[in-house]
Amino acid sequence: MLFNSWQYGLFLPLVVGVYFCLSTRKQNWFLLCASYFFYGCWDWRFLSLIWISTAVDFLVARSLPSAEGPRRRLLLLTSVCVNLGILGFFKYFNFFIESLAFLIEAVGLEAHMPVLRIVLPVGISFYTFQTMAYTIDVYRGKTDPCPDLLNFALYVCYFPQLVAGPIERPGRLLPQIANRREVSLERFGSGAVLILIGLFRKVAIADVAARMVDPVFDNPVDAGAVAVVRATIAFGLQIYGDFAGYSDIARGTSRLLGIELMENFNHPYFATNITVFWRRWHVSLSSWLRDYLYIPLGGNRGPRWFVYRNLFLTMLLGGLWHGAGWNFVIWGGIHGLALALHKLWLREAKPPDSPKCESAADWAKVIVSWGLTTIIVYVAWVFFRSPDWATTAEVFRQLGNWEASGALSARPALGLAGLWLMMLVIDIPQARRRDHLAPMRWHWVPQGLAYAGMIIAILTLRVDTDVPFIYFQF
Fold first, then answer.
1. The pLDDT of residue 101 is above 80
2. Are residues 209 and 156 in the same domain?
3. Section 236-263 average pLDDT
4. Does residue 11 belong to any structural domain of this protein?
């Protein structure tokens, strides 16, 4: 069931209507059943994986406070191995087998490796990281084990953020699930506005941009340099609108139910360096990688080259988290190298999220810095979007092809500019006010025009079929 489908348009009002007729305890039972139904609409068989993760982590966390020494570490290891084992088998088994076969054949030997037809469960990377965060936090003493299996099961499978995040921490989400929730008229309205903004980003921007992206990346032969550049820029718009749109809808849906989810995007394309970009892009994953991978690797401690190594390894694994393919590893490596080089340039200084521009020289530095950051991000997007290495190589080869017929057509360029303008109409007011609900602060006339415009754009630009969200494949 997709957020941008008519089925969800029927499902959500029904859930909200029944939800407010129940007491808190019954609300949690109802949300749990609704979440299992929501997930089961893709493939009910994979509910068993959620139940395994839920049971193992609930029991492990309950046992940790009384455990000591090796038994305590064994309990944590059990949780990590079960969760990563499930994730590794369903997401990475064939990738590692095929990579091993390639290495064997590279040294002149024959490789007869088993390849299984494995279906990737939707959202497995997200709920696996979320449950692991819970067990690790209990182990570290940062949170108490949840005494109620119902509340913990809902924490694992809460449907607004189950499939593509944000990856919530137990200290944020579990108390909201356990305590009584109230929804004011203002909060309900703000939830509806977030859903509208999310649908606008997804349906009217991302899905339309996909029409410029898919033909080029599906068959880049003879596409030409201009078409490749245009498609790459369009993909940057597509993935941002797609994932930020999902996050808006998730937050808006959750607000209707009285539960606040974290902001997962903070206008990353306005970032003036790669470090700030990763503070603003997929915030829940960035902070998860920092707290549960980068810092345990050593973080900023030790010799400077250790710090750069830790950054690089963290982003390599972050790239692999996104998908079982070497293109994702390279994408993560590009960002890891860029982060390490930026840290080297700054010599450990923390760059401001919004640098002050008090002179023309300041503005020039900001523009140059923003331009370099944007180039790095977009070059990396080529690896992220390409289905394989051969496509990536062909896309870069086409950058030297300036003779492709139709490459200089103005209509696609104007269409792309129009999509960027629609995005900026939302992003600039949000960024200036530092408020994702900035349109609600406007006078009622421009506010009404903005809402009407988004609704009209959604209805008129909507493609014939419901387009899945990009991050569903991760």
1. no
2. no
3. 94
4. no
Write down the mean pLDDT value for the chain. Answer: 88
pLDDT at 292: 94
Instruction: Pick the last residue of a domain from 136, 158, 180.
Output: 180
Domain endpoint, select from 127, 159, 180 = 180
Chain segment 352-366, per-residue pLDDT in tens? 666 666 677 777 888
Number of domains within the chain: 2
Q: Do 225 and 304 share a domain, yes or no?
A: yes
Q: What is the pLDDT of residues 109-167, one digit of tens each?
A: 666 666 667 777 888 999 999 999 999 999 999 999 999 999 999 999 999 999 887 99
The answer on pLDDT for 279 being more than 50 is: yes
3-state secondary structure the chain: CCCCCHHHHHHHHHHHHHHCCCCHHHHHHHHHHHHHHHHHHHHHHHHHHHHHHHHHHHHHHHHCCCCCHHHHHHHHHHHHHHHHHHHHHHHHHHHHHHHHHHHHHHCCCCCCCCCCCCCCCCCHHHHHHHHHHHHHHHHHCCCCCCCCHHHHHHHHHCHHHHCCCCCCCHHHHHHHHHCCCCCCHHHHHHHHHHHHHHHHHHHHHHHHHHHHHHHHHHCCCCCCHHHHHHHHHHHHHHHHHHHHHHHHHHHHHHHHCCCCCCCCCCCHHHCCCHHHHHHHCCHHHHHHHHHHHHHHHCCCCCCHHHHHHHHHHHHHHHHHHHCCCHHHHHHHHHHHHHHHHHHHHHCCCCCCCCCCCCCHHHHHHHHHHHHHHHHHHHHHHHHHHCCCHHHHHHHHHHCCCCCCCCCCCHHHHHHHHHHHHHHHHHHHHHHHHCCCCHHHHCCHHHHHHHHHHHHHHHHHHCCCCCCCCHHHHC
User: Could you give the residue numbers annotated as active site?
Assistant: 322
**Structural domain boundaries, residue 347:** 187-473
